[in-house]
């Protein structure tokens, strides 16, 4: 269950926003609708990719959301677990042949969620410490420092700089599926996804908080 909470990045968004517990983040008035949309979109893609007779991906996601809204566990503690599971599972969505059939809103929700995890992995200092939207420093504990090294110095960077950094990360297949790392598996193959993530990540490292960026998405689709 703790590993599964990572998948929608709710612990990272909550932590960066100064929200202490998983259930509080999952029930937050701004994050709650986003979580429901995001998991619903996941379910659509999973159901199309690997349909299982008698099993409902949507029913599972609804159960998942209900369960994590009862998990009074610490976001910071859960985030100590490295992000490899999140990265590998999210990568399946990026590579899915059904990604392009998703709604534009889901693509933006997904890209934003992905961008918040990259924001979490962005060091503010040379000793791999990040900073939350509320100004609190934290240690980034993913043992593979590749992403952190690539993103170090991203705060305040322009869009071209950001796009180049993310292209380096998304082109490295070993970061997203170490067990099946082949050249045509690179996330950079999905240019729609890369463009959306770059947009939201740029906003997140240039003064906008996780909540502010999501509120902008909500207004856009209101």
Helix and strand arrangement:
Blueprint: H1 2-5, H2 10-16, H3 22-26, H4 31-49, H5 57-68, H6 75-79, H7 84-95, H8 104-120, E1 129-131, E2 137-139, H9 146-151, H10 159-171, H11 191-204, H12 210-220
Antiparallel strand pairs: 1-2
Tell me what the structure shows:
With 222 residues, this protein is mainly alpha-helical. The chain has a single domain, classed as N-(1-d-carboxylethyl)-l-norvaline Dehydrogenase, domain 2 (Orthogonal Bundle), CATH 1.10.1040.10. It is 56% helix and 3% strand. A two-stranded antiparallel sheet has the order 1-2. Strand 1 and strand 2 form a beta hairpin. Helix 4 packs across helix 8. The N terminus is likely disordered.
The count of β-strands is 2
- Count up the helices: 12
The low-pLDDT segments are 1-6
Mean pLDDT: 89
The radius of gyration over CA amounts to: 16 Å
Q: What's a quick, concise take on this entry?
A:
With 222 residues, this protein is mostly helical. It is built from 12 helices and 2 strands. 37% of the residues are buried.
Question: Which key terms come to mind for this protein?
Answer:
single chain, 222 residues, mainly alpha, N-(1-d-carboxylethyl)-l-norvaline Dehydrogenase, domain 2, 12 helices, 2 strands, 56% helix, 3% strand, disordered N terminus
């Amino acid at each position: 269950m703790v590993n599964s909470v990572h998948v929608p990045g709710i612990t990272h968004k909550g932590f960066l926003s100064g929200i202490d517990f998983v259930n509080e983040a999952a029930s937050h008035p701004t994050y709650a609708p986003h979580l429901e949309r995001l998991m619903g979109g996941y379910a659509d893609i999973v159901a199309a990719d690997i349909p299982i007779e008698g099993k409902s991906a949507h029913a599972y996601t609804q159960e998942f959301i209900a369960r994590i809204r009862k998990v009074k566990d610490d976001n910071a503690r859960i985030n100590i677990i490295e992000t490899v599971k999140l990265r590998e599972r999210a990568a399946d969505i990026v590579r899915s042949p059904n990604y392009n059939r998703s709604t534009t809103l889901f693509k933006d929700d997904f890209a934003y969620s992905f961008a918040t995890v990259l924001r979490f992995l962005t060091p503010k200092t040379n000793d791999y410490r990040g900073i939350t939207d509320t100004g609190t420093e934290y240690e980034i504990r993913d043992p593979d420092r590749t992403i952190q090294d690539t993103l170090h110095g991203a705060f305040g960077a322009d869009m071209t700089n950001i796009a180049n950094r993310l292209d380096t990360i998304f082109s490295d297949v070993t970061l997203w599926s170490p067990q099946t790392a082949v050249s045509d598996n690179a996330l950079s193959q999905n240019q729609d996804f890369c463009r959306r993530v770059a947009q939201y990540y740029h906003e997140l490292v240039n003064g906008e908080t996780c909540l502010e960026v999501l509120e902008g998405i909500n207004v856009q689709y209101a």
